[in-house]
Design goal:
The structure is a single chain. The protein is α/β, with parallel strands linked by helices. It has one domain: NAD(P)-binding Rossmann-like Domain (Rossmann fold), CATH 3.40.50.720. It has ten helices and nine strands. The strands form two sheets. It has a seven-stranded parallel beta sheet, with helices on both faces. A two-stranded parallel ribbon has the order 7-8. Helix 4 runs parallel beside helix 5. The radius of gyration is 18 Å and the shape is globular.
Length: 264
């Protein structure tokens, strides 16, 4: 199918090769956005790009980038800027790992911090000034229900990084109020994605005892939340209750519940 430009209506989606990121790509393509999709895996991105071009007739540019590397966010943004203005930035890329902190691989910890915190913050900082200058734009930061919890014994670093994303995004959303630029934080609970297996989370009680949502439903909630200008989106009724419970005092109760849920 011949591709048609959307006249600057362009969305950048990180972590686009699978899971929630892939489903968000489909929604933005169906919405008529030009796409810049980025991740580490060329084969998956090429297959996705061909599918989106064929079904929706939108331009799709692929940029291979490992956001776990120092300065990757800045390098990525330099390539993005060559394509023109960005209307939407979706910071979806993220990694996690389960297990006792004392046994965690230091390289894995450093990479998690780099992807979940440093790259997300850097890309947001690079995107926001141009959006403010134009008076419109959207940021979507994909956090987690974990970010609304007091902590996660057994996934201590992952929970902490997602708490950062929630806190940072809430504060920035307030700074941007009235500017024409919005920031939506998507906080999914347990979701059927590659993350479960890669992080070792599929073996935890959390995934066995609580409902697990489809990535497509989570992505749709985030997409609609962005369109509605919502600050925080928690897909699923059970997840909404868990998110509320995690923020209510005494928080030590939620901490103990999480310790049980994050056990194998």
């Amino acid at each position: 199918m011949e591709t048609k430009s959307s006249n600057g209506k362009r969305a950048v989606i990180t972590g686009a090769s699978s899971g929630i990121g892939l489903e968000l790509c489909r929604l933005f393509a169906a919405g008529g956005y030009d796409l810049i999709i980025t991740a580490r895996r060329a084969e998956q991105l090429n297959r996705l790009a061909e599918d989106l071009r064929s079904k929706h007739g939108v331009p799709v540019k692929i940029i291979l980038k490992d956001l776990g590397q120092p300065n990757a966010a800045e390098e990525l943004w330099a390539e993005i800027r060559k394509e023109g203005e960005v209307e939407v930035l979706v910071n979806n890329a993220g990694i996690g790992a389960a297990g006792p902190f004392a046994e965690a691989d230091p390289v894995t910890i450093a990479t998690m911090l780099q992807v979940n915190v440093v790259a997300l913050t850097a890309l947001t900082r690079l995107a926001v000034p141009d959006m403010l200058a134009r008076g419109h734009g959207h940021i979507v930061n994909v956090a987690s229900l974990a970010g609304l919890q007091p902590g996660g014994p057994g996934m201590a670093v992952y929970y902490a990084t997602k708490s950062y994303v929630v806190s940072f995004s809430r504060a920035l959303a307030r700074e941007l109020r009235g500017s024409g630029v919005s920031l939506t934080t998507l906080c999914p609970g347990s979701t059927h994605t590659e993350f479960e297996e890669k992080a070792g989370a599929d073996k935890l009680r959390l995934f066995r005892w609580l409902p697990v949502m489809d990535a497509s439903a989570v992505a749709r909630a985030g997409y609609l939340g962005m369109k509605q200008g919502r600050t925080v989106v928690i897909p699923g009724l059970i997840n909404k209750l868990l998110g509320l419970g995690g923020e209510l005092p005494p928080r030590r109760i939620a901490l103990e519940i999480n310790r049980v849920l994050l056990a194998g």
